[in-house]
Fold this sequence. Notes:
Layout: E1 2-4, E2 7-9, E3 21-25, H1 56-66, H2 81-87, E4 91-93, E5 101-104, E6 108-115, E7 119-124, E8 132-137, E9 146-149, E10 159-164, E11 173-178, E12 183-187, E13 198-201, E14 210-214, E15 223-228, E16 233-237, E17 248-251, E18 260-264, E19 273-278, E20 283-287, E21 298-301, E22 310-314, E23 323-328, E24 333-337, E25 348-351, E26 360-364, E27 373-378, E28 383-387, E29 398-401, E30 410-414, E31 423-428, E32 433-437, E33 448-451
Antiparallel strand pairs: 1-2, 3-8, 4-9, 5-6, 5-9, 6-7, 7-8, 10-11, 11-12, 12-13, 14-15, 15-16, 16-17, 18-19, 19-20, 20-21, 22-23, 23-24, 24-25, 26-27, 27-28, 28-29, 30-31, 31-32, 32-33
Amino acid sequence: MVMLGGVVAQVGGVGTAEASTVMCSSPNYGYSCVSSTGYQGQPTWGYQVDSRGHNCTNYAAFRLASNGATNPDNLGDAHQWDDQARFKGFTVDGNPVVGAIAQWESNHVAYVESVTADAIETTDDSWDGTTARRRYQRGQSDWPSNFIHIKDVPQGGVGTRLTGDVNGDGKDDAVVMFKDTGTAMVALSTGSGFATASSWSYAHTIGADKYFVADVEGDGRADLVAGYLSTGTWYVNLSSGSGFWQETSWASGHGIGTHRQWVVDVSGDHRADLVTFDKNNGDWWVSLSAGSGFWPPSRWTVGHGAGSASQQIADFTGDGKADAGVYFADNGKWYVAPSSGSSFAGYSLWSVGHGMGSNSRFVGDIDGDGRADATYFFASNGHWDAGMSSSSGFWSPTAWAHGHGVGTHEQFLADVEGDGRDDIVTFDRVNGDWWVSLSSGSGFWSPARWATGHGANS
């Protein structure tokens, strides 16, 4: 313990971390590794901090308070937290879960961010030290002595699976957003797999009707966007590159009664805009992003796609602006209305007889030429056909994959490798498996499992 003017300051060391992998260490005694949490060394529940605002017990208390925990009264130094927590009726065991406090008898505590079968990741602070993110392998000598369960973060529940480049490295990542807890679990792409998922938010935009990840600010990182359709209110959690900041309101009154919504760049300024579609009359409304909010909506076209089976927004022409495409399943016709940057121009016929009998249609640039192509998924046999964009139409579809996605619950096109070509990504809700078939530019390679357990039962 350290005496500060007669006040006992509860502190902890960092002597437990020799065998751990340091994922991030904030320079200059800073807070960059935990910036998404809002922690800046502010004292919580009476715990003291050093002259630079650091202490492991204070950080643990801050994270618990942020999760909604009530003050359990002082738990003492870090090495006392297990005994004090038991005395106060909290569970202390060897079971790591997200939101638990990892505790070492050598006098340190940390916050558990993610858990897998063989490892955990934590964030922590330290007296006379700095904030950091670490990975601990089970069975190693520095594994925590205990896990203290004061306000664990519930996992599971109703989840939305998303893909997008949330850390700005050019590779799309796998995101599962749990609406009942407001928890965003992110598995970053390494280019050959999805890394262990970690929590990027908690209690953010709970209960939203729609979630998206898209770069609305224009900094190259996809942000978390949430919409409440009964009020047309839209909130944005900006990405810091390692987490999502607290939400701020970006729009109100947009999207009430609409049937489809997207967050995508239709003006070509590298900021994703809010787009909605009414299937009854074919109206498309757009709220352009200002970088700090969405402007009031304006109608960009009318009568485009009323009665269509599916609607898609993507840059079909290759000019940097996403266009509005609609597909009619009974005759395989695509109609596309190119974006002028301020409206969707008159639509024209782009295909006839394509993809008939397919279960789902996806659009994305799978050959890397800058133009979004049309793909067709047949669920019974995992067959994928693709029709390349010529900038004014889709060429006749050819087979790109077979046997990928049978029995899966969701499918995506996303550039998870970072080579400019969208790949097939599929998700199995039962076991949380994510499978990827990389694009070669003329077909999809055989699928490989990139993650397991990420979003299981969500």
